[in-house]
Design a protein that fits this description.
There is one protein chain. By secondary structure, this protein is of the alpha+beta class. It has helices at 2-21, 57-83, 91-115, 122-132, 157-165, 172-181, 195-199, 243-276; strands at residues 33-37, 40-43, 142-151, 184-186, 193-194, 217-221, 225-235. The strands form 2 sheets. Strands 3, 4, 5, 6 and 7 form a 5-stranded antiparallel β-sheet that branches. A hairpin with a 2-residue loop joins strand 1 and strand 2 (40-43). Helix 4 (122-132) crosses helix 8. The longest helix has 34 residues, at 243-276. The two termini are 59 Å apart.
């Protein structure tokens, strides 16, 4: 059905092109030559699949003209490049190497999809962290904290103050309030955040990488917002990052190492198999 639709569309386009160029119409079944640049030619059949269903003949002509204009420039650039290939550039070898790389990459992808165990347990993460944590020194301070930022005038200000002061007993009412009214809030005391990210949400100089350790539990306001902030723990620059902060990064490294080991083992197994089958011979 798609080919039939394309043939019908082709007939309309050819008629339109003929009327635009002044040529006498030929049989619709013929493949219309659209453009030529040196020894490269563009035919209407090269554009099969480029016309959405319901495209009118007029719109199709516009699509063809735009495509042909782009094709001619690309073909011209390719021709110029071909005329200026350095004498020591082995195009055939580059093509063979690129083809081999594509084939290998595709097969490795299939192997990984079929064979890689993508489950990383908390125990494996902890073991990896203990072996490699010296590699995860912080480049910028991070903080565990609570933070709330509410636009002025503060809706139900007394309620917010009470919820903030009582947050140790039950956090859910404060979370519910913030989800309705706050512009920004952080209320997970197990999460780590960059100090600079918190600082961007507050008046300049309120919280910095230099004064964060001195901050405890405070509130303040300006003309636009009411702020509440409480620090639980700070890790400074060059401290070892906590596991919870680098967990996602660690998981990626574990999986990358597994992938490399999987492919190495698979290649070695193939090598040993083909040695046994006498399909590998050396002459050195």
């Amino acid at each position: 059905m798609r080919r039939i639709r394309f043939s019908v569309l082709l007939l309309g386009v050819l008629i339109g092109l003929s009327s635009c160029t002044g040529e006498d119409g030929k049989a619709a079944a013929e493949d219309q030559l659209l453009a030529k640049v040196h020894n490269k030619a563009l035919y209407i059949s090269d554009m099969e699949g480029m016309f959405p269903d319901g495209t009118s003949g007029k719109d199709s002509t516009v699509i063809i003209q735009m495509f042909a204009n782009r094709w001619m420039r690309e073909a011209l650039l390719l021709h110029e490049a071909e005329q200026n290939i350095p004498g020591d550039l082995n195009i055939d070898k580059l093509v063979r190497d690129y083809r081999a790389s594509l084939i290998r990459h595709n097969y490795e992808k299939i192997l990984v999809q079929e064979l890689l165990d993508s489950t990383v347990t908390d125990e494996q993460l902890a073991e990896f962290y203990e072996r490699n944590k010296q590699q995860y020194q912080l480049e910028t301070p991070i903080v565990r904290c609570y933070f709330v930022k509410v636009p002025m005038p503060v809706p139900e200000a007394n309620e917010l103050r009470q919820l903030w002061n009582n947050k140790r007993e039950d956090l859910k009412p404060l979370v519910d309030y913030c989800s309705r009214n706050a512009e920004a809030y952080l209320l997970n005391d197990s999460m780590w955040y960059k100090v600079e990210d918190i600082a961007r949400e507050m008046p300049k100089g309120t919280v910095t990488v230099d004064n964060i350790s001195a901050k405890q539990d405070f509130s303040q306001r300006d003309d636009e917002y009411q702020y509440y902030f409480k620090v639980f723990e700070v890790k400074n620059r060059k401290d070892i990052a906590p596991l919870s902060y680098i967990k996602g990064q660690a998981r990626k490294v574990i999986l990358r190492n597994r992938k490399e080991k999987l492919l190495e083992d698979k290649i070695e197994a193939m090598y040993q198999r083909e040695l046994r089958r006498n399909n590998i011979k050396t002459y050195y």
